[in-house]
């Protein structure tokens, strides 16, 4: 005789409920930065963005001038 499979003792969770439960569990494990660390890191990101924006603007202007000088476009 074949053994009968064990029945689960509870309601099955649908995919959305399982996703929310697992996501909540993972977020509890996260090491969140302090306000001071977050402010410092935000400052670094803003300075980097400004620097890269200026750098790319300069490179774009130089390449524009070179193309105009070479091709007369």
The low-confidence runs, each spanning 5 or more residues with pLDDT under 50, are none
Q: What summary fits the major beta sheet?
A: none
The helix count comes to 2
Beta-strand percentage range? under 5%
> How many strand segments?
0
What is the terminal-to-terminal distance? 87 Å
Q: What is the general shape?
A: elongated
Class based on secondary structure composition and strand pairing:
mainly alpha
Radius of gyration: 29 Å
The amount of helix comes to over 70%
Q: Overall pLDDT, averaged?
A: 88
- Helices and strands, in order, run as HH
Could you characterize what this model shows?
The protein is 71% helix and 0% strand. The protein is mainly alpha-helical and 73 residues long.
Can you tag this structure with a few keywords?
elongated; 73 residues; mainly alpha
Give me a quick take on this structure.
With 73 residues, this protein is mainly alpha-helical. It has helices at residues 15-29, 35-71. It has a domain at 33-73.
List the helices and strands and how they pair.
Elements: H1 15-29, H2 35-71
